[in-house]
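Project standup — Tuesday

K.O.: blocked on the structure for the chain from last sprint. Re-posting the sequence here as requested.
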Amino acid sequence: MKKIVSLLIGLFITLAIAACGGNSSPEAAAIAFTKAVYSGDSQKVISMIYLSEQDKKEAGVQDILSGKIKLIVSHAKEAADKNGGLKNISIEDVKYDDDKKSAHVQIGVTFKNTEQIKKENVYLIKTDDGWKVKG
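H.V.: unblocked you, prediction finished:
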């Protein structure tokens, strides 16, 4: 019984680490960001936004950003729900800058009630915490 519990705990820790490491590439970060937007997970979206050290120190910037993100995410989830929910997110194109520290990812979003692919652009920057979305 102890072996099973230890195995389950190890599996849980592995899955948790893998879930946190989802921003190891711009493609993975763009997909995670888009899923969070259309599922209404504003906290995850906020955590994926890049803020410079100066922005972090400036009074009110994080509060304003948080309020705007929550509104945008709410509208995006509403739109996704009207279209039957998110069906698929695909990577259409990826372009890196010369030093590979920022990237432009074009994604295709498909909803369950439509076959039309909605193209979106996600601009990312590589940080010590993985890839973050440029605001």
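K.O.: great, moving the ticket to review. The two ends are 49 Å apart (CA to CA). Residues 1-21 have pLDDT under 50 and may be disordered.
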